[in-house]
Amino acid sequence: MGTSLTLAVIGCGSFSSGFVPLFKAHPLVNKVYVCDLIQELADTAAQRFGVEVIASFEEALKRRDINAIAIFTQRHLHGPQVLAALAAGKHVYSAVPMASEVEQCQQIVELVRKSGLTYMMGETCYYYPSAMFCRETYRAGIFGKFVYGEAQYHHDISHFSQKFRDDLRSAGIPPFYYPTHSTAMLLSAVDSYALKVVAFGYEDREDDQFFKKGINQWDNVFSNSFSMMKLANGGTARINECRRIGYKAPSSYVSSCYGTEGGYQFNNAQHVLTVKTPKGVTLTDVSERVNPVAVTENRHDPEFKQKVANHQWQWNSFAPIQQAEADRLPASFKAPDMPNGHMASHQLLVDDFCTAATFGTLPPVNAWEAARWTIPGLIAHQSVLRDGEVLAVPDCGDAPKV
After folding, report:
1. To the nearest whole number, what is the mean pLDDT of the chain?
2. What share of the chain is helix, strand, coil (3-state, %, to 5)?
3. At 223, which helix (H) or strand (E)?
4. Would you call the peptide bond into 320 cis, given omega within 30 degrees of 0 as the criterion?
5. CA 67 → CA 63, 120, 319, 351, distances in Å?
6. How far apart are CA 340 and CA 284, in angstroms?
7. For 100-136, what is each residue's pLDDT tens digit?
8. How many domains does the chain fold into?
9. Which end of the chain has fewer CB atoms surrounding its CB within 10 Å, N or C?
């Protein structure tokens, strides 16, 4: 057995609060610290979860007893903080995105390669039921050769937290600087990566100052961005990142995945698989396998469609297709008060990171995969700025065989 983890959680906002108790409860974790630039947030988290406060990110990096860092800070800070933690010899779990610069993604991959440390990006959507179903179906050969697919992150800015929206300097981040809720689902499903991308943006027309030059730190004016990506397997992916759009839930999903032999389609709780036959197709409704159990249990609710469209029953309930993954979770996660979230992905994320960091295995969302899901978005934004110029996507290569 490897060395147990002593972990510092950096950033004590609302999102990290769902992870501190999971790290604390995991049998491979010896101790958890919390840290935030706002001392009150760190003190509140420490008291709430029964853990200790560490004074600063820099102090956590210096401490020899701390061998893992979990980063839950603002999105544009992830790249530099991950690089600093890896350079200090720490295993790293980082919320998405990997980084906001291509060079930082490449540097993270290289540091992980040289050091042998564990890096895992906390991409929830890799574990989403729709992504799992498409991965399983594609690998079983049912789709045939991949032809075309669509994935999107449609999350209107009005649905973000007030704290996020109050920070006008950061709230207007270019949509494709946060691409992995879209790319991870489809690219992981068809075992491929982007070679080229072309993208266009929707220039925002509202008066609330989020997407305005001179307001946000990127001078970004685009609230919605849309891309087409040429993949290494010969297929094409349509990826959307939208923050000003009349849609609610699920905010992230695979809407379609087509191959030469079959296809998948999704819309508001209905998941359909078609398979080509000599005279047409066979159509199978796979909704009960792909939807969270809580969705299926409430399918006769008179307001079912409205409630699904407003994100009800889609937080901590596992779907049947996730059950095999859920079964391998530690017993400590089975407690009824143990948190989960984002289509029941949080517990799977924490378990995969702790297992990989302890035993030296490669986590599913490793540095190489994270780069392949992040960099296409960063290049897509460059295409948006160049009014749809086709651009090559740098690739960091395949993950090593461990």
Report:
1. 97
2. 40, 25, 40
3. strand 222-231
4. no
5. 8, 14, 34, 16
6. 30
7. 999 999 999 999 999 999 999 999 999 999 999 999 9
8. 1
9. N
pLDDT at residue 111, rounded to an integer: 98
* Residue tagged 């799977």 (tokens): 348
- Cis bond upstream, residue 129 (ω within 30): no
Structural domain contains residue 280: yes
Residue 285: beta bridge partners?
272
Share of the chain above pLDDT 70, in %: 99
**pLDDT tens per residue, range 127-186:** 999 999 999 999 999 999 999 999 999 999 999 999 999 999 999 999 999 999 999 999
Structure pTM? 0.97
The pair of three-digit structure tokens given for residue 9, joined into one six-digit string: 């959680």
Which segments of 247-315 are extended strands (E)?
Answer: 252-259, 262-267, 270-277, 280-285
Rounded-to-integer distance, Cα 62 and Cα 187, Å: 37
Q: Which of 257, 264, 302, 299 is nearest to 284 (CA)?
A: 264
Alpha helices in 5-93 (DSSP H): 20-25, 39-49, 57-62, 78-87
C-alpha 59 chain-centroid distance: 28
Q: Pick from 387, 396, 381, 377: which is nearest to 237 by CA?
A: 377
CATH (domain of 315): 3.30.360.10
Domain that holds residue 211: 125-359
The C-alpha atoms of residue 78 and residue 160 are separated, in whole angstroms, by 19
- How many residues are present in the chain? 402
pLDDT of residue 3: 78
Asked, for residue 157, whether it belongs to a domain, the answer is yes
Residue 352, domain member (yes or no): yes
**How many C-beta atoms surround the C-beta of residue 46 within 10 A?**
20
Please name the helix (run of DSSP H) or strand (run of DSSP E) that holds residue 385, with its range, or none: helix 367-385
Q: Report the share of the chain in percent with pLDDT over 90.
A: 99
Q: What is the pLDDT of residues 176-226, one digit of tens each?
A: 999 999 999 999 999 999 999 999 999 999 999 999 999 999 999 999 999
Question: From the CA atom positions of the chain, what is the Rg in Å?
Answer: 21
Does 23 fall in a domain? no
* DSSP per-residue string spanning 175-241: GGGS-HHHHHHHHHHTT--EEEEEEEEEE---SSSTT-TTTSTT---EEEEEEEEEETTS-EEEEEE
Q: How far apart are CA 370 and CA 70, in angstroms?
A: 16
